[in-house]
Design brief:
It is built from 15 helices and ten strands. The chain has helices at 13-28, 44-57, 68-72, 77-90, 119-137, 153-165, 185-192, 199-210, 234-249, 255-258, 279-292, 337-350, 360-377, 384-403, 418-424; strands at residues 99-105, 111-116, 170-174, 213-214, 262-266, 269-274, 303-306, 314-316, 319-324, 330-335.
Length: 445
């Protein structure tokens, strides 16, 4: 579960002031270690803001089967739920529940494991995130773009474009194998302790890291490695661990210094760009990540690309980038083919026969919501060709959906084209112009 703390109305003024003070202290004293953070978790405004963030994200129930509706419709309501959480934190009787394991399909056909904490644990994690985020934000480098306030995937793509125009056209495109599930707990706790020495807070995080995994039909046992991809605190913890790789990269011993290379990282996805991608750079990255950081590089998916070579390209965050042009070279950005395939799959799901009981208006609204979100994200570089492909496919799928509505098919005038029917129903047609006023907001992480 990714929680984005970017909307001012979600943060009460008193809590915003606290976050500002924590951030200022961290900025003014880069080596200061915070020792009195736990008491902030007992604040009612912190717990209420945490509930608001978690409730907005919704999500499935955890190991205990508790849903948001169960809490909202209970006799004590949300206030009683938060009061109980506060009491367990105050009396130090709070314990982390097991984490429910679920699997979601990946683009390569494999399954990605997710861990879903209970709503109680999600709220406490979100509360601690509200406290820790402003502290570590002052430490994170500009080269890190994922799961951070006021940072976006579009900014990462822009950074790649800037590096290309600086002549850094040789790219090491890395892939970390099962990153979230492979972070060593001991190393991660050491990274935390560079800023946090409040033992009560560290104990909470240890509990979440070691919470047993519950999977139907399998025995439960403590989690020995990794942070559950699905917990509210996990994106911050995963960023924190690789932050130390970023720092090492730009240190005197790193290629950011001796090779003038540039790293651009979005969570666990990163590329390294340099004028010349030497074996020395590649071996340094592999030695540090697999040695010092005890992670594993997927060598089947990791490659080095020279954009100066004809027809070469690199994929990153759903986009394909090329250095193209016969006389005057340009950095071309467009949605990658796999992104189009995923979009077609989702549109096919939204217009499938299983949605036949929904009204036409409901189906159009759902399709439009997807198209606007997808188009807003991929409205970068030269997306017009991709937009046209998705528009054509969407319109075809909607026509099939309408024809299946009854045995006689959808009723329309013979003189009326299917395109005009779809326009009349309010179906969105993706164009670059429709996103001009929104700018890069769709690229926010």
């Amino acid at each position: 579960m990714i929680i984005s703390i970017t909307e001012k109305e979600e943060i009460p003024s008193a809590l915003a002031q606290l976050r500002a003070k924590l951030g200022l202290k961290a900025k003014q004293e880069p080596k200061f270690r915070f020792y009195t953070l736990y008491s902030h978790l007992l604040r009612e405004d912190v717990l209420q803001a945490a509930w608001n963030l978690v409730h907005r994200n919704n999500g499935a129930s955890g190991y205990d089967g508790m849903t948001f509706n169960n809490i909202l419709n209970s006799k004590e309501g949300v206030s009683g739920f938060l009061k109980e959480i506060r009491e367990t934190l105050l009396k130090r009787t709070y314990r982390a529940d097991p984490v429910k394991r679920v699997y979601i399909p990946k683009s390569d056909g494999k399954l990605r494991p997710l861990g879903i904490p209970t709503i109680k644990d999600r709220v406490v994690q979100a509360a601690l995130l509200l406290i820790l985020e402003p502290i570590f934000e002052e430490d994170f480098l500009e080269s890190s773009y994922g799961f951070r306030p006021n940072k976006s995937a579009h900014q990462a793509i822009d950074a790649m474009k800037q590096a290309a125009y600086e002549g850094k056209l040789e790219i090491y495109d890395a892939d970390l194998e099962s990153y979230f599930n492979s972070i060593p707990h001991e190393n991660l706790m050491k990274a935390l302790q560079t800023r946090v020495i409040d033992q009560r807070v560290l104990k909470l995080i240890k509990m979440w890291l070691r919470a047993p995994i519950w999977e139907k039909g399998k025995p439960m046992k403590p989690n020995e490695r990794g942070t559950q991809q699905g917990g509210a605190i996990s994106p911050l913890l995963s960023n924190l661990y690789l932050h130390w790789f970023d720092k090492l990269f730009f240190s005197q011993s790193g290629p950011g210094t001796w090779a003038k290379a540039q790293i651009i990282r979005y969570a666990d996805d990163f590329v390294i760009m340099a004028r010349y991608m030497t074996d020395k750079i590649e071996k340094w990255v592999e030695r540090e990540l697999e040695g010092r950081f005890r992670l594993k590089i997927n060598r089947e998916k990791t490659r080095t690309v020279d954009l100066k070579k004809p027809k070469s390209s690199v994929n990153f965050l759903g986009f394909t980038m090329r250095w193209t042009g016969k006389y005057q070279k340009k950095y071309q950005i467009q949605p990658m083919e796999r992104s189009l395939k995923r979009a077609r799959t989702r549109i096919r799901e939204l217009t499938s026969p299983k949605n036949g009981l929904l009204s036409i208006k409901q189906v159009v609204e759902r399709v439009n919501r997807f198209l606007i979100g997808w188009g807003g994200y991929f409205n970068k570089g030269v997306p017009s060709k991709a937009f046209n492909k998705i528009n054509y496919y969407t319109q075809g799928q909607m026509v099939h959906f309408l024809k299946r509505r009854s045995q006689r098919g959808y009723s329309r005038n013979k003189e009326q084209s299917w395109y005009s029917v779809l326009v009349g129903l309010g179906l969105v047609t993706l164009t670059r112009k429709m996103f001009q006023q929104e700018g890069d907001s769709y690229g926010k992480a």
